[in-house]
């Protein structure tokens, strides 16, 4: 099946809730790890459909980011695509995808699909043709270059898996570019035919009813056309939050990504999204705030929601978090709306990074800041990274010499204390990845029965957010009571004022709130509802509270 088949459907007109995403909570589902619906040990579209009532009715999210589900050899969790317009049989088929759309929409859930425009699998027919001959009509659909004078790679660019981004094709005597695995050649977005074909891919999935897309590595689509070397990094420069090969941090990646021409490409993609009234969340790396803001595009004609990954990469300390939120708010173009995440499929899990107690505080931060929150599956349970033996690893990034695996953050969702955590009835050895060793206590069923559980905290936060215009869409105001230990801010809408006070330490704190009177409506400790607040609030170790303030904003 191709994107030019008559299965493409007419664009739908944007409806009255065209900006539904401003007030939504998005759930990131890593499809192979959510729920196995056919008993083969791998999560799939059937399992996702079975989970919709939990996601909408029990948890209370508004949208699901499905994750890649397209035809693929599955060397990179499905991000290596061999057919952009068909479903990988491991996950289902197009009829199952259509059923997912229908079932989700019937429950009031929006569906976001992955759009992966930078690269394909080396098994994609386009690349098979491209590497067959220098004269093939699809040769220029990928990025090819002659060897350097010494016969080596065309330049010094390093890959996220370590080593060069260039792979020599002995048959044709040129190198092809692969930002990721060597089995993931980069498409050439400077070729108009590639652009047209990939925009048709986008139309294909939007035409099937997807409400939007998450664009993979949106900042990488355009590279330096002269293929100039990257300069070396200053000594000791690494990013402890990124799970990349150490060699990747040895240079400043100024020529292999973030080329200014990328904004024209994203504007074209936005044009297609606007045909369907669809939204785009963009994956872009952490960068300076002024550069980040450019991804909203001229007159907000770029990405609707470019991820602000500097929030994920901020030390879990009140002064650092206060500064990064302040910078984000200051950098937002007029009318723009932020998208927020504290965890995702490419980072260590939140509870692993900050600890189980502070993960509760982090949940309150994520769901009360101004912006569209994106929550990773399993974070609502406090799921931690699970070590995965090398022989069980699925992520080929971790199988390269010195490579770092993302698998520990992608293990199966534990639904109950039953076999395999209720994820799958298959033999344990056939599971996509091993289930968490703590699944007997950290699972949906157990936590639903425990009023003080992480899951019930998430449910309470989501319900509070859904009923509060201030938390969904109100203004953000940094509170002057914030100190080096606590993060304090207000959300305001009309006459509604919600104050959020977060203790980021393991000691009790007293936060002075001059002139602030009200009552606690939610505590991460779970037992302080309706407790009055007058001029100060006492916070337990690692506790966050939401206070309903009386009176109009000062």
As an assembly, this protein is single chain
Strand order in the sheet with the most strands = 11-10-9-5-2-1-13-12
Globally, the shape reads globular
The count of β-strands is 19
What are the segments in which pLDDT stays under 50 over at least 5 consecutive residues? 1-9
Helix and strand composition category: alpha/beta
| C-alpha-based Rg, rounded | 24 Å
Average pLDDT confidence is: 93
Helix content: 10-25%
Q: Please summarize the sheet with the most strands.
A: 8 strands, parallel
Q: Count every helix, treating DSSP H or I runs of 4 or more residues as helices.
A: 14
The fraction of residues assigned to DSSP E strands is: 15-25%
Head-to-tail CA distance between termini: 60 Å
Label this structure with key terms:
8-stranded parallel sheet; 554 residues; disordered N terminus; 19 strands; 23% helix; globular; 6-stranded antiparallel sheet; alpha/beta; 14 helices
Task: Describe this structure as you would to a colleague.
With 554 residues, the protein is α/β, with parallel strands linked by helices. 23% of the residues lie in helices and 17% in strands. The chain has 14 helices and 19 strands. Helix 6 packs parallel to helix 7 (262-276) and helix 11 packs parallel to helix 13. The chain starts with 25 loop residues before the first strand and ends in a 5-residue tail after the last strand. Residues 1-9 have low confidence and may be disordered.
């Amino acid at each position: 099946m191709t994107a030019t088949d008559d299965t493409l459907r007419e664009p739908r007109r944007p409806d009255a809730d065209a900006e539904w995403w401003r007030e939504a909570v998005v759930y990131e589902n890593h499809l192979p790890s959510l729920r196995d619906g056919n008993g083969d040990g791998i999560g799939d579209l059937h399992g996702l459909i079975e989970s919709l009532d939990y996601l909408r009715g029990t948890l209370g999210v508004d949208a699901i980011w499905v994750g890649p589900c397209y035809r693929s050899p599955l060397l990179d969790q499905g991000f290596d695509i061999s057919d952009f317009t068909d479903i990988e049989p491991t996950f289902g088929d197009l009829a199952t995808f259509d059923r997912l759309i229908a079932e989700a929409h019937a429950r009031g859930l929006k569906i976001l699909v992955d759009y992966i425009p930078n690269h394909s699998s080396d098994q994609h027919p386009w690349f098979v043709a491209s590497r067959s001959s220098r004269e093939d009509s699809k040769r220029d659909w990928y990025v090819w270059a002659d060897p350097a004078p010494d016969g080596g790679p065309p330049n010094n660019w390093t890959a996220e898996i370590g080593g060069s981004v260039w792979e020599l094709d002995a048959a044709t005597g040129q190198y092809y570019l692969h930002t990721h695995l060597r089995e993931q050649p980069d498409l050439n977005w400077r070729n108009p035919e590639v652009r047209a074909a990939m925009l048709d891919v986008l139309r294909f999935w939007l035409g099937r009813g997807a409400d939007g897309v998450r664009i993979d590595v949106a900042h990488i689509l355009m590279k330096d056309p002269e293929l100039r070397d990257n300069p070396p990094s200053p000594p000791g420069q690494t990013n402890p939050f990124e799970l990349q090969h150490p060699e990747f941090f040895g240079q400043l990646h100024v020529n292999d990504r973030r080329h200014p021409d990328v904004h024209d490409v994203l504007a074209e993609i936005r044009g297609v999204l606007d045909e369907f009234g669809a939204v785009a969340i963009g994956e872009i790396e952490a960068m300076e705030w002024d550069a980040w803001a450019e991804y909203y595009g001229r007159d907000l004609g770029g990405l609707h929601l470019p991820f602000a990954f500097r929030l994920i990469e901020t030390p879990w300390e009140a002064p650092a978090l206060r500064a990064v939120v302040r910078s984000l708010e200051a950098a937002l173009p007029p009318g723009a709306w932020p998208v927020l995440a504290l965890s995702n499929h490419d980072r260590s899990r939140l509870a692993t990074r900050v600890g189980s107690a502070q993960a509760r505080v982090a949940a309150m931060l994520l769901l009360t800041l101004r912006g569209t929150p994106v929550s990773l599956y399993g974070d609502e349970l406090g799921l931690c990274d699970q070590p995965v033996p090398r022989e069980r690893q699925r992520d080929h990034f971790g199988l390269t010499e010195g490579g770092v695996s993302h698998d520990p953050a992608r293990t199966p969702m534990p639904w109950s204390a039953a076999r395999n955590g209720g994820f799958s009835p298959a033999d344990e050895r056939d599971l996509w990845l091993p289930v968490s060793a703590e699944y007997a206590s950290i699972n949906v069923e157990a936590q639903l029965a425990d009023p003080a559980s992480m899951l019930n905290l998430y449910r309470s936060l989501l319900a509070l957010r859904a009923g509060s215009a201030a938390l969904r869409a109100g203004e953000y105001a940094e509170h002057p009571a914030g100190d080096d230990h606590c993060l304090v801010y207000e959300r305001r809408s009309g006459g509604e004022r919600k104050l959020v006070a977060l203790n980021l330490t393991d000691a009790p704190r007293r936060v002075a709130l001059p002139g602030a009177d009200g009552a606690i409506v939610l505590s991460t400790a779970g037992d302080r509802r309706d407790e009055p607040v007058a001029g100060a609030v006492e916070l337990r170790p690692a506790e966050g509270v939401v206070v309903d303030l009386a009176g109009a904003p000062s």
